Amino acid sequence: MATISTQQGLSKAKAAALTVLVNACRFLLGATFVFSGFVKAIDPIGTQYKLQDYISAVGMGGIVPDIVTLLASVALSALEFSLGVFVLFAIRRHLVSKILVAFMAVMTLITVWIALFNPVKDCGCFGEALRLTNVQTLLKNIVLLAASVVVAWRPLRMYRFLSRSTQWIAINYTILFVLLLSAHCLYHLPLIDFRPYHIGMNIKKGMEIPAGAPQPEFETTFILQKNGVKKEFTLDNYPDSSWQFVDSKTVQTKEGYVPPIHDFSIQKADGDDITDSVLTAKGYIFLLVSPHLEQADDSNFGDIDLLYEYCQERKIPFYCLTASTKKDIDHWADITGAEYPFCFTDETALKTIIRSNPGLLLLKDGTIIRKWSHNDLPSSSSLNAPLSKLSIGAMPSTSLGETIMKVVLLFFVPLILLVFADRTWAWTRYLRRKRKN
Hints:
alpha+beta
């Protein structure tokens, strides 16, 4: 009897340990997928850019239409976010655990490729919120793949928060929430801006390299020849003058400090660089940003023209920054009646600055204090006083923490209430059955 009791005790201990392991893997997967899906969902255009980088890396750049990559961006973020929520709440445990294994298997294979061949510098797993090297991404995916295998091995070990009969509510709510979130951020701007050009950033300070920052290191190799034999040497073992110089090559062995903003410049049509004068100017400056004017939305050009007239009256500088050709600039001016000056800026920088084409920035003393999508431009009726006396002339009052808290509460509070109602109903049914028996 003692032996049987001991075996039963060991069996229970193993079962308990297995349950703890499965649920630990479950929460690791859930938290990672929710975070990854969320940061992609609030910046669908940024995710689209990353997908286009992958497509270009396999030699298909320009073949896949933009609308396809945008829809794929929204679908990917919705899938990741939904899978994360479903595994957190143990919804459809068998099916979801199998999908997680398949998803992580594919992602791990992709990260093996980028770790070996480095076709893209950043995998984009966590959008602009968190950047990992390709090797770090591979290690992360190996851990997540292992966790998904554990969960799929014993899916019923995951404690279920919702009865099967009510899970459809959480499923539909989650998918609807993440799709509406992406739609909102597409029409307006990302709710949370993780990029270096966020509100509150002084662009000039973001370009500075602090004192004592690590500097890049380089190594030069010299190719020399003697008696028909070529050899490579470095400065440490450079030979005597009997060797004849053939060639040299320099490679970077260590990357130094790279400031958050390192590719921003403004050039006028005549080639004059006005970057420093714009960033050091005191007072307000409006910057209309359009990476490609030929692709820009021109439905609100009237508001832009009225804003430019307001700036002329108030002596506020106004520039349009673009990477378009002169032909495209002239076409934009013809169809919109634009009279504001056009300047040239790097395309990648413009795409990073704002996720709208066109988008609008307001700088004060070189610091970004406002950003607008072309769907939210200041109306002419609101521009009835000096900027210093208008609400748009000051930094927004809502903090980053408040925005995150609102989103979290908006999504999780209804789900938690659903769980509470479901568990209460299940408990009352249990009590009724017990009384009846």
